[in-house]
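<backbone_tokenisation>
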Amino acid sequence: MASEFTLYSSARKYVLDGTIVLDTDILRLALATSAYTPDVAHAVLADVFSSPSPEVEAVASPDNGYTAWGKMLTGQVATKTDTPSAGKFDADDVVWTALTATFRYGILFAEKTVGAIVNPLIGYVLFDATPADIVVSGIDWEARWSANGIITN
């Protein structure tokens, strides 16, 4: 299984203007089905989960190990180095217990409202580029971030 993380265009602005604070905000990873068509121009969660919603919760039973808006990230840390000048954002891998679902994407967003911006988007993960959906049935499933971090610069 291949995974590829892509930043939404607005995420850069949101981090630079303080709308999103990567190491202290509540960040969540939601799972979306292949009904989602990624668009880097999406800016807020409502852009992703418009009608009909591609979120896993919308298409699976309520006792499938998944809750609406996915899982909160833990262990968030933003670091920098001086030589070479670089920055990195990372967090613990995300685990769903006894997950039964069919999905293709992970949507990373901040659970917050800043002015008119509600649940700003950070990026999305394409979990399988074959193209194929990920299908799991009652297993513990883990979204593993790159050893280099979620976002590096």
About this structure: The radius of gyration is 15 Å.
